[in-house]
Amino acid sequence: MIDGKKVLFSGMQATGNLTLGNYLGALKNWISLSNEYECFYSVVDMHSITVRQDPAELRRRARNLFILYVAAGLDPEKNCIYYQSHCSAHAELAWILNCFTYMGELSRMTQFKDKSAKHADNINAGLFTYPVLMAADILLYQADVVPVGIDQMQHLELTRNLAERFNNLYGDVFTVPEAYIGKVGAKIMSLQDPTKKMSKSDENPNASIYLMDDPDTIMRKCKRAVTDSEGIICYRDEQPGLKNLIDIYSACTGKTPQETVKEFEGKGYGELKPAVGEAVISVLKPLQDEFARLSKDKAYIDSAIKANAEKAMYVSSKTLRKVQKKVGFPERVR
Ligand code: TYM
Fold first, then answer.
1. Any catalytic annotation for residue 28?
2. Which residue among the candidates 5, 78, 113, 115 is catalytic per the annotation?
3. Which of 55, 74, 192, 209 has the lowest tally of Cβ within 10 angstroms?
4. pLDDT in tens, 182-193
5. CATH class of the structural domain 215-293
6. Catalytic site residue 197?
7. pLDDT digits (tens, 9 = 90+) for 216-266
8. CATH topology of domain 7-180+298-327
9. Nearest CA to ligand 1 atom 20
10. How many CA atoms lie within 13 A of 50 on its CB side?
11. Is the pTM of this model over 0.90?
């Protein structure tokens, strides 16, 4: 609790081009929860270097992601939006938690298996201990709730286990966080292969809608989305491409999948697909316009970066000091 409010933590990697999946699975929920909770939203640039990055490019993307959080509607005066690398407590707690995490637990992580297959020439220790840094992110702020897409559930489960393990040894140190998974949009699938999740690292650009795609591109990608030959609008696992389009439409319009099915009853995919395109454009266009506006306001963004990094350092250092004391590090002489 901070000032009587429960705490929310979440983050996104500043890698690749963000997709509609990132928006509908995470960012959209962050905004709807932001008034209810004391919120910490991190640009997790330290996680990004588990795969090779071009330094200038990483810096540019990290700043753009920071601006995007604000453009999406997160007020940096009410929410603590900050770069993970500006707050050294993350690395310090991650080290301690590393010593409480088992190799076996980390080897079971699906994201590690996927990423090490993709980057076989660079299976570094950071890629392996990535979920421990994520646990540190969350536990440092004593977060009650962590809004994420379904793909992050396994990491969150590990975070909970680590918190419980530590608490069992040392008393109540960490809040055990709960995941918050949105009702629709928690797993947006690829438009070209709806059995795979929509991902910023997909090589086929038609598989993903990027947050900065222009309206024509969005419409073209939606019209080309892979569906099936059944031709009947139903919401079921046997028609994964269609189900995904219904999810996207529903998440963008605030309807339930059942309401969407009803709306398109008796209509064909030829009508649904452009309607999905329009719904996505109506969500992304204002975001893009606001992003363009804020990108020009260097002073405002810079002051938010500075003030929020200080806040993050202040809050996180309290947990870190407590943990350091529990594990037996000497007290600091003032
Ligand atoms: P990242 O950067 O891959 O994704 C950011 C958020 O977007 C969600 N997401 C999706 N949701 C629905 N459908 C999709 N196709 C889709 N693709 C991505 C993710 O679930 C995530 O919520 N490890 C994290 C970043 C992280 C973090 C944290 C998150 C680091 N520390 C602490 C929460 C709390 C990651 O790589 O997310």
1. no
2. 115
3. 55
4. 998 899 999 999
5. mainly alpha
6. yes
7. 999 999 999 999 999 899 999 999 999 999 999 999 999 999 999 999 999
8. Rossmann fold (3.40.50)
9. 149
10. 22
11. yes
